[in-house]
Structures are given as structure tokens and as C-alpha cells.
Amino acid sequence: MSGDERRAILRAWLLGIGLIGTICFVNILTIQHDDPDLGALPPVIWEGSSALVTLAIFAIPAAVALWTHRHRPRWWQAAPVHLIAVLTYSALHVAGFVALRKLAYLVLLQQTYDFGDLYREVPYEFRKDIVAYGIAWVLFFLSLRQGRQQAAARPAPLPATFDIQDGARLLRVPIDDILAVRSAGNYVEFVLADSRRPLMRTPLAAIQTDLTEHGFIRSHRSWLVNKARVTGLRPEGSGDYAVELGELEAPLSRRFPAALAALRG
């Protein structure tokens, strides 16, 4: 998943936790009010087990929401996926909370939990699970759609630039427009894509670290080349190469084997 998708799924999951927690709390209070003689633990076990399993199987509607969000299937393509998903969701929900209740009854109450008549209870739970699955799917899908809309509304990041102090003039040049940098005595010469060659009074080593962070590679003691603009490598004999950057050629010395490996990678 992309970062935006992960954040959207997490946002919906946290909202689901809040909703399920609230419903669980209200149901516990309602059961205790309707049957004060039941005791405090059974309602907590019933509602708590259902809530815990629901939070775990939220992964199912989340996965289906991600699939529908990415692929935009037609209704007749999505229907069988939803059917399989809701059947799996309900089966895991019932099996999960029954197992937790049996364990809790045994440990906390020293009793045996009885789920009741399967022919009556399973359809009842399935009807509730259809609603729960649908709400969860809508929650995840809307969160993913909102995340996509927010991503589309964000301005595109500005391209990385490098400041070239060419005498008294400062040139702010996009990194992608710099083909290579060549040492020229006490200066460095920047070879730009538009054929300009501004000079900057500084040793090559002084700017190497900054440019290396942007994908530049030291191919020769006097040259840095922009890996993203390399169009070819031509062997020159004795282990040396010529680095082709469009119409420009820069030397690649055999003394820089790491540069050769990086440009071939």
C-alpha cells in the first residue's frame, strides 16, 4: 500500500474502534439494566468478545475496500467478492467470539458457555454481520477516497535545485538540468542541459557531497556526472569508459570501479 492508503486505512480503523467501543459499552449497560440479576461479568464477556473479534476481522472489509478503490469494478464483478467476504467475515466472527466466550467462562466463571441453537443463532448473527460488514466497507472506502482527493489536492513538490554562484550572479538551477560538473583549476564548470556552462569558484570536492545526495557520481578525479541523465557507456580500452550524457561525453576512469558499478546498476 502507498503511504496515503495506509493512513486512510488506519484512520478508518481508529474510527471503527471508537464506534465499536461505544456500541459495546451501551450494550453492556442495556443488558445489565434489563437483567440486574445476571451479574456484571457475562455481559462484559459477551459484548467484549464480539468487539475484539470484530476489530480483528475488520481486515476483510478493509481489503475489499482497497480492491474496489483501486480497480473500480462493475457491480457484477464486485458482488461475488462481497458475498465471499461477508460469509468469511460472519463465520470468523461467530467462531471467534464463541471461542473467546468459552475460554472466558471457563477461566473467570468456572462455567461452560452455551451458544444456543445453531439454526436460530447463526442466521441471527449473520444478519447483524451483513450490516456490520457493509458499514465497515463503506467506512474504509470513503476514507480511501478522501485520502485520494487530499493527495490530488496537494501541490506537486518543487524540483530540487542547486545554487551556482557564477561571479556576482546567483543561478538557481534544477538538479535535473545539470548534466555534469567538471573541475577547472580553482573553479568548477557546470554543464547544463541548455548548453550553458557557468563557472563557480570552488574545488570539486567542496560540492561533491551535496551533489552526491542528488544522484551525482564521481567518475573521474575531475568529473561528477548526473546518473539520471546518463544515456550510455562506451568502453575506451584499458578499463576506461566514456559516459554519454546526450551529446556530452565525460570520462570514466578505471580508478573508479564503484562509479562503473553504480552507472551499470
The tally of strands reads 10
Strand order of the largest sheet: 5-4-3-7-6
Fraction of residues in H or I helices: 55-70%
Mean pLDDT: 93
Low-pLDDT segments: none
List the secondary-structure elements in sequence, H or E: HHHHHEEEEEHEEEEEH
Number of helices: 7
Which structural class do you get from the secondary structure elements?
alpha+beta
Q: Specify the overall morphology.
A: elongated
How many structural domains does the protein architecture include? 2
Question: What percent strand?
Answer: 15-25%
How would you sum up the major sheet?
5 strands, antiparallel
Descriptive account of the structure:
The protein is of the alpha+beta class. It folds into two domains: 3-153, no CATH class; 161-264, Beta Barrel (OB fold (Dihydrolipoamide Acetyltransferase, E2P)). 57% of the residues lie in helices and 20% in strands. It has seven helices and ten strands. It has helices at residues 3-34, 41-57, 59-71, 75-109, 118-153, 204-212, 257-264, and strands spanning 161-166, 169-174, 178-184, 187-192, 199-200, 216-220, 223-226, 232-237, 240-245, 248-252. It has a five-stranded antiparallel beta sheet, with helices on both faces. A three-stranded antiparallel beta sheet has the order 8-9-10, with helices on one face. Strands 1-2 form a two-stranded antiparallel sheet. A hairpin with a 2-residue loop joins strand 1 (161-166) and strand 2 (169-174). Helix 2 runs antiparallel to helix 4, helix 3 packs across helix 5 and helix 4 crosses helix 5 (118-153). The longest helix has 36 residues, at 118-153. The two termini are 26 Å apart. The model has no long low-confidence stretch (mean pLDDT 93).
